[in-house]
Amino acid sequence: MFAEAESIPRSKYGNIMHSDPNLPTGPGSEDDLYIRYSSASTSGPAFYESHRTSLDGSPMTMSPWNQTTSFMKPPGLSSDDDNVPANSLIGSLTREEGHIYSLAATKDLLYTGSDSKNIRVWKNLKEFTGFKSNSGLVKAIVISGQKIFTGHQDGKIRVWKISPKDPKIYKRTGTLPSLKEVLKSSFKPSNYVEVKHKRSLWIKHVDAVSCLSLNEEQGLLYSSSWDRTFKVWRISDSKCLESIHAHDDAVNSVVSTLSGMVFTGSADGTVKLWKREQQRKGAKHMLAQTLLKQDCAVTALAINTKGSVLYSGSSDGVVNFWEVEKQLGHGGVLNGHKQAILCLAATEYLVFSGSADKTICVWRKDGNIHTSLCVLTGHMGPVKCLAVEKDHESRSEQRWIVYSGSLDNSVKVWNVAEYAQVTAGHQNHHHQQQANFDFGTDYNSCESEESPSCSQNRQH
Q1: Which of 31, 65, 351, 401 has a CB 3.0–4.6 Å from the CB of 25, allowing a cystine?
Q2: 3-state secondary structure of 309
Q3: How far apart are the first and last CA of the chain?
Q4: DSSP β-ladder status, 360-366 and 192-195
């Protein structure tokens, strides 16, 4: 997938923003976020205020974008994307099936996963087809050619394949681990381990699968889980090669790189680097470095398409980043959110962060400086997942189509220009961003760039 530099489906570096909480259930409760902040305590700061509407009284609240139709486009806009305002909302996809927890985009298809157990497939911003799992909320989706891997709340990974006769038909071809592997392993006592006070086969996740990441060059699939492990699967035969007890709390995110590095982020507040090393009995993943130790949970990870910068989002609303080409030196932090980061996505030069505060911050990387490009607003619930693709119809400038899934049951579609002008004199400022909403039209949903934020001095 990432062999195509023009497309940023989250399949190559994984579904980088699936992380979730263990909090009390109730209407509008933090449990809806499905981010594991910590399994040690269910008490803590409220990251999602159910009564708070970020755009009360604003033009956006009264905008036709907040109506629940399957797809909407601003009147008067032609199909020529050069006529679409930069950094604007161009449509909404809704199907009353519950919260959107996972997204994956590839070429002209968008896959959405929700708590209805359905995976919907959209083409040209219209519903194309769909398929359903028997059990398990869909928490992660990654794509490898004609195969689709989905991670679920029930701890299973399901494998689907597109029918060669009909592209609208998806058939489940297996589950990880396969029944054959489970039966084969169950007869050997040494294959059982104790995880979270449960005795289980080491090849099985005993809690929710929080994230999936593909390394197609090596033919590997990585899965992280709330059971504090990440596992390594060989795609060709669905065999589990390794299970690593990686953290002291839930593993919320895993991303892999072309160079063989694997990064994990956890509710225990750490980000760790693992390297695959050849040993006498085969390749094993070994802990190489702990990049971050902090009190608040790490909720999301992303690596840019060039593989040069790693980003980490936390429950305190801060994004940390490290520069791979500088021996993973800490580059600084990005401050733009008032509540927890729930998801991250990155192109080569742009970074997108979705938050429980219902907004999406967009940052542009220039050298080692990150400038706040804009803040996308319009969701009425926490932004849970992101996917990004190159806008192939834009001819005058580099633009990206950004898909954002939310707990407001919608997927919004945005058009973001990579080189939208940043106000002169503010490019190198590193102060805290102020909320300054500026809605020129109903479809323009980008925060004013009057006060770009990039505080890169906070160390952990």
Answers
A1: 31
A2: strand
A3: 34
A4: unpaired
> What is the rounded distance in angstroms from the CA atom of residue 45 to the CA atom of residue 274?
31
Which token pair is 86?
A: 């930069």
| pLDDT tens, per residue, the chain with 460 residues | 333 334 444 333 333 333 343 333 333 444 446 566 765 433 333 333 333 333 333 333 333 333 333 344 433 333 444 567 778 898 999 887 889 999 999 988 999 999 888 899 999 889 999 999 887 799 999 999 889 999 999 999 999 999 999 999 999 999 999 888 899 888 888 888 988 777 888 999 999 999 999 999 999 999 999 999 999 999 988 899 999 999 999 999 999 998 889 999 999 999 999 998 887 777 899 999 999 999 999 999 999 999 999 999 999 999 999 999 889 999 999 999 999 999 999 999 999 999 999 999 999 999 889 999 999 999 999 999 999 999 888 777 789 999 999 999 999 999 999 886 553 333 333 333 332 222 222 323 344 333 333 333 333 3
Q: Work out the angle at residue 352's Cα, subtended by the Cα atoms of residues 6 and 157, and round it to the nearest 5 degrees.
A: 75
Contact 216, 195 (CB under 8 A): no
- CB atoms closer than 10 angstroms to residue 419: 12
**Residue 294 DSSP label:** -
**Among 195, 272, 275, 198, residue whose Cα is nearest residue 228:** 195
Q: For residue 157, give Cα distances in angstroms to 42, 143, 152, 167, 422.
A: 27, 13, 6, 22, 43
Read off the pLDDT of residues 236-262 as tens digits, 9 standing for 90 and up: 888 999 999 999 999 999 999 988 899
Question: 339, 379 in Cβ contact below 8 A?
Answer: no
Quick one: the chain helix, strand, coil %, rounded to 5?
A: 5, 45, 50
User: Cα separation of 341 and 201, whole Å?
Assistant: 33
DSSP state of 268: T
Question: 72-76 — which CB contacts under 8 Å span 24+ positions?
Answer: 74/441, 74/442, 74/443
Buried b (16+ CB within 10 A) or exposed e, 134-166: eebbbbbbbbbeebbbbbbbbbbbbbbebeeee
Report how far Cα 367 is from the mean position of its chain's Cα atoms.
24
Residue 282 dihedral angles phi and psi, to the nearest 5° = 115, 180
Task: Confirm if 347 and 4 have CB atoms less than 8 A apart.
Answer: no
Quick one: which of 351, 455, 374, 360 has its CA closest to 411? 360
Distance CA 92, CA 336 (A): 24
Domains of the chain: 7-417 (2.130.10.10)
